[in-house]
Amino acid sequence: MAGRPAEPEVIWTRPERAGRGPRPAFSRADIAAVAVRLADEGGMAAVSMRHVAAELGCGTMSLYNYVPRKEDLYELMFDAAAGEFPLPDRPSGDWRADTAALARRARAMMHRHPWMSTVMSSHYGFTPNGLRYIEFSLACLDPLDLPPGEKMELISMISGVVTTFVAHELQTAERNRTLPWSAEQEQAARMAYLGREIGSGKFPRLAALMTAAPGPVDLDAVFERALGRVLDSFGGPAREGT
């Protein structure tokens, strides 16, 4: 297929357009912007080389001259979204507060671009803007007395918490959106069923749980607790020598 490399390559080492000829009609930024918009509006199912090409007003085969593989298109999309990530000029010096702030911003960004949680990959993390994010994250951890490899483990674990948490939030929202009745009616029916089962006496631990924590779950509070526990595991008093 036109434009496909004969050997493995990284899209960022490839010229904007393969081969000779007139000046490229589109930039990678143009292509990524169209693909991101399609994904924001219709999910990753709406993103195909044919659809992106049609939105750009070119043929599908022409698009392969710019983006050899669909995986490369996903990488461009990830990098474009990551470029929106607001990073301060420098860390504050409080590694814990800075890392938590990054996690909150990442959660917000994944809600703006719901498709991101479905394509998270260590490969896509090494795009130009992905590297920018990792470098800043490591700078936030400069005050933390840990080997570089463990600092990267912390960054990866925080990313995993955020991605998993957001994926659950988005899946729940999508399910509620497609219900034939309201989410409140669905919840009421399920709680009635749960109440009957717990009232049977077969689930004493669940009964104690429901008694201790009645009412709806505060997802923001759960997120903060999960985030705090990961940070504690790397930077508690024993690890910092305080």
From TrEMBL:
Organism: Streptomyces liangshanensis
Protein's UniProt keywords contain Transport: no
Pfam families documented for this protein: TetR_C_1 (PF02909), TetR_N (PF00440)
GO function terms (MF aspect): DNA-binding transcription factor activity; transcription cis-regulatory region binding
Protein name: TetR/AcrR family transcriptional regulator
Domain HTH tetR-type: 25-85
Keywords linked to the UniProt accession: DNA-binding, Transcription, Transcription regulation
Superkingdom of the organism of origin: Bacteria
Protein's GO biological process: negative regulation of DNA-templated transcription
DNA-binding region, residue range(s): 48-67
